[in-house]
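[Amino acid chain]
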Amino acid sequence: MLLGRSAECARLLALIDKARGGESGALLIRGEAGIGKTSLVSYVAEQADDLLRLGTRGVEVESDLPYVGLADLLRPVLHFLDRIPDRQGAALTGALALGPAVAQDRFAVAAGTLSLLGALAEEGPVLVTVDDAHWLDPYSLDALAFATRRLSREGVVVLFTAREELEEAASRLASVETFTLTGLDPESAHRLIAEEGTAQLTEQEAARLLAEARGNPLALIELPALLAGSGADDDSGSGAPLPIGEMLAHTFGSAVARLPAEAQDAMLLLAVLGTRPLAGTEAALRAHGLSYESLEAAEDAGLVVEERDGYAFRHPLVRSAVYHGATPVRRRRAHHAIARSLQGATAPALEQYAWHLAASGAEPDEHVASLLENAASGAPETLAYPLASRLYERAARFTPEGQRKAERLLCAARASQAAGSLNEAAAILDRALEHAEQLGTQLDIRQLRCYLDVQRGRPTRSRELLRSAVDEAEKVDPALAAVMLGGIALTELAVGDLTAARGTSAAAMELADSAHQTLLPVRLLRTLVLLLGGDAEAGRALLRELAEPLASPDPAFPYPLAGVGGLCHLAAEELDEAHGMLDRAAYTARGSSAVGLLSHLLCTLSVVEFWRGRWTPSLAHADEAVRLAEASGQLIEVSRGLAALVKTEAALNREEDCRRHAAKAMEWAGSAELPMDAARALGGLGLLELGLGRFEEAVHHLEEVRAFSQRHGRGDGLYLTWAADLADAYVHLHRTDEAREVLDVLEYEAGRGHRPVTAGAAARCRGLLEPGDPEAASRHMRRSLALLSERPVPFERGRTEFAWGEQLRRQGRRSEARRLLERALATFERLGAAGWAARVAAELHAAGGTEVRPERAPLERLTPQELQVALVVGRGLTNHEVAERLFLSVKTVEFHLSNIYRKLDGVHRRAQLVRLLAQASEASETAGVSGGAGVPDA
């Protein structure tokens, strides 16, 4: 056991024991330099000699080279790549420069990392150690963080260490459990000084050491040589303790300065090289007239240690002391020597060549810039996006100020966006705009920045940026101006401002027509605007015209065209068409690991499934969308997904979850300037209160949604719905005049083309407002059921049956009321609408009926993630394919499947699960389109 670390060792060893039992875990150990993080992890690794052990260490000079840390970590297990899905294996191979590169985003690499760890765990438990994570390149760290979050039942332990004062690594690992390692207790500190005995100290010097070191083990070992003979009163003039890192750097710097010049030169080259196989290190040393023998003096001084692949620094602070202690001239000379050894390299070593050349102080050089640009653009279909972005950035570094620098930075930003690195892309665009001299390039930069800001939840900035560029674009490229106006309309729709979007989309169409071009993005956004709040029949006609191009939209377009197409079908109340388009697009997005696109599609698909009465898949889609959006920084999709969760949870009467997610949705929507999603969450709360019979509370929430809609020129629709719920609440509170005002909104919306769901809800509300005319009321209710039977909307049909049955019971027509109430109760029970079912049951009892509760739907017993696994298995995919599409490990899929089989009676095989899913879908569709059996005649 490590001296003074018994509790910490026990905590880590408990994780190892759990891994032996098949349970995964992760821990981030933070602390100051020299506190013993590496020693603690090394000790635990020694005790875990029965586990497969993989390790890497962040190196400061390599922190901006993509995937260099991940390549170092996975190098010993590359022969397992053939056990993971081909696409993920190819993505890993390309990103790590271990074989032919392939186009991929960072999530494909992260998913491949997860799959590879899962494949390794099939052989036995695995321990992964990542030392000095604060210096690991962000691409590697993000991939490992992504994989760590999704580990569950594989038997993989991941241990990270990071400096306490450096926050970036901790923020990227925010989901990982963290503990801070503090100094040794006084007794252990005394024992360590006595055992090491590196220098003879007086009593006063020992006291000063204990005070200065503050229990830091490395300081207790190394500082005696510095303090010996200094005297207790030598406090460097300040009386304040020096920072541990500064003291240790001084100690190591002094030790380096005592070495022969040849050893210092060799150590500087080693510090500059970073993590590199033995052959690469030897080549760089030879190019500088040195060899491994030059490091023997450093080894004798205890500054470097010999390892299997060559020499390594004993501690990262030694590397830092060597590099930062050298004069600028010596550092530049070392970088230049390494750049010479890399001449003629191909990507990604070409990037290292450029980096070392830049660090050597080289001036702009068009030859070097062209070399890097050609490497980035020569085979765009096969080059990893992160690497392409870095190569373009390096090319810009060697490009003189001006237009060519701007063009290369714009290419870097596009590749960075494709890699899913939105913040990095935005920062690159800001630099590009400073150098752009041509108007066309400036406009391209502004347009891309707009879409980035929308994705990152900054639609106001996006709209302002594009608005300022449209007039200039119209003079030189009307088609580009039209697309820009379409982008503005998109941001206006994202915030819910339909009034503004009407004018913007119309102007975009005029520009496109004047340019004699049929622009799918422009026409699609105009279609959506018309369907949401204009001539819906014209919108439907446009949507039919766009059916063919929408079948295969351009996946490289900055915003998801298939997702907008799905919203169009939803607004047109074409639920089956919306489901088909979104489901196909989501399936394709899963196959290409397009996480950002997938989260957008799942948000809308969740809304569609809510209306179709498939609430369990609705929850699963929204839950996954939120998790993926949070991982990818897509703030707009986080709030959209949360609002979708609130709606479905409200209908299911999951009150605690509904309120929690509503609060979170409104918080996210506020920070991301997305008031419409806050309104959607409020609408969900209104539905929750309505189902519980709390009509005053329902009115409170729904009136806020009404006010939002009125401010922004919106009526009522399936994406943001409120009018039917508010009218229902008003009727129950006997506020009939206000209910009639809301009914006017519904009937106006129902008159904008053929909208059977809205028209059915309007007819139901009209019937509720005719209590004194039973014949008229029944006529409206019968019409409501007929309209609603045109679409698969079981919840809406159940509400009409409930409202009509309630009305008939109060008219004394108990027998007719019972038939309707029994059907409504069966529908609500089948859907899981507990609050609504309770209200119906009370009415049924009052009508003299007997409550018969149908058995709970089997799929409702599953968690959202279990259901998502079941849905993908239902497509006939293998466990490996399911893992690839859901960004899980195979073992986690197997774990969820075992839970699924345990929870579903009579389901023990995949074929049985597929059959159950088909039956559930068929039952939902049947419930949604059932005819008028049992409907009273009058």
Summary: The chain has 47 helices and seven strands. The chain has a mean pLDDT of 84.
